Every structure is written in structure tokens, then in C-alpha cells.
Amino acid sequence: MFTPYRQLFQTPGGLRFSIAGLVGRMPISMDSLALIFIVVHATNSYTLAGSLAAVASIVVAVALPFWSRTADRIGQRRTLFVAIPLRTIFLIIFILLVTQKAPIWTWFASIILAESSIVNAGGLVRRRWLWALGENRNLINTAYSYEALMDEIVFILGPVIATACATSIAPSAGLIVGLVFMLIGTTAFALQTKTEPPPHPRNLAEPHPPVMRNTAVQAVVLPALFLGGFFSAVGICVVAYMQSHHALASTGLMLAIWAAGSGTAAAAHGMITWRLNHAQRFWIFLFALTLLSIPLIFVNNIVFLGIALFFNGLAIAPLIVSAYGVAETAVPPAQITETLAWVIAGMPLGGAVASSLTGFVIDNYGAHRGFLVAFGALCCAIAMSLPYFRTWNRLRSAS
To answer: Residue 77: exposed, middle, or buried by beta-carbon count in 10 A (0-12, 13-18, 19+)?
Structure first.
């Protein structure tokens, strides 16, 4: 049963760069929640917090493919040594502006600059697995599933750490600790040059078409816009719901339960030798996630919320693994890192709209109504796939 993972861990240097990547991407589960804590503490407005999160998400959606394309062309190490110092400086400026009650427009300006330097650490790790495994396609599903499990460990630990720091130390502590994780992890990752994929400088004689002209990539990225809306809406709703029940300190635990469900599914997914291809699995798990989101609409106590989040999470990791698989196999090696980034980039862009809408709904109608926004986002994800019916039919029929 565990043979695929045993074989994966025997890959030279694999565990070392994966662990460094795990530490380096801790902020992805901390920053959004930490931003909400620091802004709500300063202004007592979920609408403003949601708006800042929305602006940050829009910038992330643009920045991730840019830096990933750069990593494809000049290498991961050189890219990280440019982007990470920029992000560090501007995020510190944002924290100082919020804590010193500077004009709100400066908050927006600084978070835009900070998020414009964000790098898709998870995509860089997955690209290294692809390079390290070479032609061994049988283990790539296991590698993707393993990294999905690592993502869920990040989303289990990150919210708990961010909540504990923000409520026990200072509202800004969550962002600061996330920054420390990023600096340690990405530096250790960048220094491991033996497992770094070779760069693919732009070939002007035989240029590859832009990634987003590929219909298979479009068919994944556009639904992912609304998956991001779903994730953002649920995250904000959980914070507000726990606050309304005077249990704000347990917010991280609730989000960790959600991630634990996804992590459980990720571990199981990597052990299975699938007869269904990535496209077939994508649709199965997209419908499963939509159905498992219905109980969230009817949550009426904290215990029910925890149970609903766990079962909802069971469909998340397999869906994301399938999305990566569909997109990665549709492009040449010189564009893989950028393509993996596009899958994720669509999510914060959709989350931008959902964050603002969810914040408005919570402020005016209560936390439990916000879950309707999350469910609606998944319905939109399914609807967004319909224009690509022929593409999906082709992908599902592929061996």
C-alpha cells in the first residue's frame, strides 16, 4: 500500500527540497487570516479586511505566473533571490502602516507592492519533483498527492499558528511569523542547486505559444477562479462564525479540521493506481466538493461546523491534484512552472471577488449567510466549464 511513497522518498534530494518548500509556503495559509486579524483589530470592519484581501488576491493572480515564467527562464535560485527580499521589505512596511494607523490608502499601496513579489513555492517544489522523477510517470501522481498532503499540513498548522500569534502575542504577529517561515524555507530551497531544474531561456527561433492559449489549460484555470472564491469565502465565514459564537481563538482549529479532511484524502489518493485519468477525476471531485458544501449552508453550531468542514475537505486535495495533472501534461517542459502557477493564480483572483462579497454579506446578514457565497462559487465553477465541453471530452477520452 505504501510502496509508491517509499519509492518516492528514495528520490535523491527529494525529501530535502520538499521539506524546505513546506516551510517556505507556510505563509499561504497564514497571511490571509493574519491580514484579517490585523485589519479587523485596527478598524473592526470585515468589509475593509475583505477588500484588502481582494486587492491582494488580484495582485497575486498577476504575480504568480510572472515569477514562475521567470523561474522557467532563468532558474529557481536566481528568481527567489530577487523576489523574496522585495516581498520582505514591503510586507514589513504594510505591517508598520497598519499598526501606526496610517491613512488607509497607504495600506492598499503597501499590500499591492508586497504581493507583487510573491512566488509560487508549491509550484517550484512540484516542478522539482517532475525533474527529479524524469520519465517515471507512475510516481508523479504520488508526488502530486504527497505535495497536496504537505499543502494540507501547511493549512492545518498555519491557521493555528496565525491565530495563536494574533490573539496571544499581537495582531501583527501572524504576518511576522509567516514572513520568518518564508525566509527560512525559501532560502534553504534555493540553496539546493543539485535538484534545481535547468532553466529554459526564451527561444526566439522556435517560441512556444503563450500558456493561456492552450484550451486544456484554460479549461482548468477558469473553473479554478471560482474554486478560489469558494476557499476565500469559507475562510472568512469561519472567522466570522467563530467570532459570533465567542470562540475566535478556536478559528485556527476549525480551519485545521477542514485541512485535515483534505490531507486525509491526499494521502489516500497517492496510494491508488488510478484507471481514471486526471480529467475524469477532476470532474468527479468537483461535483463531490459541490455536494459536500451543501451542509455548510445549514450549520447551526460549532460541532456541526467542524464535521461539515472535515467531510468537505475530503474532495479538495484530489481535485487540486487532478487540476495540476491536466494542466501540466498539456504543455512542454519549458512552460511547466508557469502552467502550475496559472492553476493557482486563478484561485486568488476568484477569491478577490468572493472576499469582498462575503465580507459584505457577513456585515449585513450574519456569518452563516456567507456560506451561500461559497456554495454559489462552486456552482459557477461547474458552469464555467461548460464552454469547454469539447475540450473536456477530448481530455477525458485520452489514455
So the answer is: middle
Instruction: Judge contact between 233 and 380, C-beta under 8 A.
Output: no
In a domain, 380, yes or no: yes
What is the per-residue pLDDT across 49-88, written as a single tens digit (0 to 9) for each?
Answer: 878 877 887 888 888 888 988 998 898 999 999 999 999 9
**What is the extent of the structural domain holding 142?**
12-199+211-397
CATH value at residue 129: 1.20.1250.20
Cα separation, 153 vs 150, in Å, equals 5
Residue 176 lies in a domain: yes
Tell me how far CA of residue 266 lies from CA of 41, 90, 156, 247, 376, in angstroms. 35, 34, 13, 29, 25
Structural domain contains residue 18: yes
pLDDT at residue number 398: 65
222, 327, 329, 396 from 277: Cα distances, Å: 20, 12, 11, 7
CB 64 within 8 A of CB 79: no
pLDDT in tens, 298-310: 888 899 999 999 9
Q: Is residue 7 part of a domain?
A: no
- 10 Å Cβ neighbour count for 246? 8
Number of domains in the chain: 1
Sequence-ordered list of residues with C-beta below 8 angstroms from that of 232, at least 6 positions apart, any chain: 32, 53, 57, 348, 350, 351, 352, 354, 355, 358
The H or E element spanning position 150 is helix 140-168
Distance between CA atoms of 378 and 380, rounded to whole angstroms?
5
Residues 6+ apart with CB under 8 A from 170: none
